[in-house]
Design goal:
The protein is an alpha/beta fold. It has nine helices and 20 strands. Helix 1 packs parallel to helix 2 (126-138) and helix 8 (314-327) runs parallel beside helix 9.
């Protein structure tokens, strides 16, 4: 049982707060900052009878799912089942990871990938993406395009090489076919602007406030010793995405000495502290990134990541459910020396349960769904 109130400030309705009968007030709110403490009396509560000052309360963290559809194809119907589950259990978003070294699984005029029919088994057509966006909006689920650069880019670079080999040579690094030449960040981002804008327009939800777009930035070769170029690339990429109406996030692991130059409005998905030591530089802690003023989303590599595999049986999934429940804490992050370290910062805004797909090749779509849907339900019910 809950009681619902209208919060208003200076006579303007904000949104609803649901107050549990046991007195707890850490409740999901729309329109207010997630996972933030609000002081007593900050708002006026109108419960339909009278106006009283609001109690102190804390908004609920955002929770969502990151789904890797780049390494294996997911049909529109399968993705809708994931959206249904997120919506049914009070989640806020689906982050769709459609671009990686193994594939680029959405249609693109820029890349010349636009001739397939519906449910083609290779990529989502533009009509299917449009339907997915409409479906997410109807279910009040934010869809977050996850277009990872400057690394993890081989899937779409292979397509670009076929369509425009000269441009592919211009934007690609000279040492890897999966990494962009981020040292020439301005030239590369401008050359790719039409592709970025095409993707941004495909996924735009004008009815979802503060829709996000993840720009990647993880596992970038050379980034530790080229922080200025790396951060400048991410800033330029962010500018293009923001111009399309999105808020921007990126992964944490390549952020090091260049952090002070990163745009302050870029949110950081914290999956793990870098384990590859370059001069004993393990990368920044979540504490350091939060203290620098950046919003954080916890994607703990140990407790909030799962790779579906054919070897798993129902008992394994049940064990994973118990594990998620036992380890879940918004502030418990994966550092190199403590994979469940609790950090004290007020910059956490949410968490994500991530499903990477490299272990599921050869599984049927239903077999994959049978493993991930119970985990999503468990995570969202905590």
């Amino acid at each position: 049982m809950t009681e619902e109130y209208i919060l208003s400030s200076q006579g303007t309705e904000i949104k609803r707060i649901a107050k549990n009968t046991n007195g707890k007030t850490q409740i999901k709110l729309e329109g207010l900052t997630p996972y933030k403490n609000y002081e007593e009396g900050l708002f006026t509560i109108n419960n339909g009878v009278n106006n009283v000052k609001s109690p102190a309360f804390k908004t609920k963290e955002e929770r969502g799912v990151i789904l890797d559809v780049a390494r294996r194809y997911y049909s529109l119907s399968a993705i809708k089942i994931v959206v249904d589950t997120i919506a049914a259990y009070g989640g806020e978003y689906l982050q769709l990871h459609f671009s990686d070294n193994d594939g680029f699984t959405i249609a693109s005029d820029f890349l010349g990938q636009n001739d397939a029919t519906l449910n083609n088994g290779k990529y989502l057509t533009k009509d299917e993406v449009s339907e997915l966006v409409r479906y997410c909006s109807a279910n009040k689920v934010m869809i977050i395009p996850d277009f990872d650069m400057p690394a993890h880019s081989k899937g779409w670079l292979d397509l670009l090489t076929l369509k425009d080999p000269t441009l592919a040579t211009t934007v690609k690094s000279d040492f890897s076919d999966s990494v962009l030449n981020y040292w020439d960040y301005s030239t590369v981002v401008e050359a790719l602007r039409p592709m970025i804008e095409e993707v941004a327009k495909m996924f735009r939800q004008t009815d979802i406030p503060n829709q996000r777009f993840n720009i990647g930035g993880d596992e970038v070769a050379g980034a530790s010793s080229s922080q200025d170029s790396f951060v400048n690339f991410m800033n330029h990429y962010s500018d293009v995405v923001e111009s399309q109406g999105y808020k921007v996030t990126m992964w944490n692991d390549c952020l090091k000495s260049g952090l002070p130059n990163l745009k302050k409005n870029i949110g950081v998905l914290y999956w793990k502290q870098s384990y590859t030591s370059e001069g004993n530089d393990y990368g920044l802690t979540a504490q350091a990134i939060g203290d620098a003023g950046y919003n954080l989303y916890n994607c703990n590599f140990y407790s909030l990541v799962f790779l579906p595999q054919s070897k798993f049986e129902m008992g394994d999934i049940e064990w994973q459910q118990d594990f998620i429940v036992s380890k879940y804490k918004v502030e418990s992050v994966c550092h190199y020396d403590n994979t469940y370290e609790v950090v004290e910062t007020d910059k956490f805004r949410g968490t994500a349960l991530t499903f990477w797909s490299e272990g599921s090749i050869g599984m049927t779509e239903q077999e994959v769904l049978d493993q991930i849907i119970p985990l999503i339900e468990t995570y969202l019910k905590i």
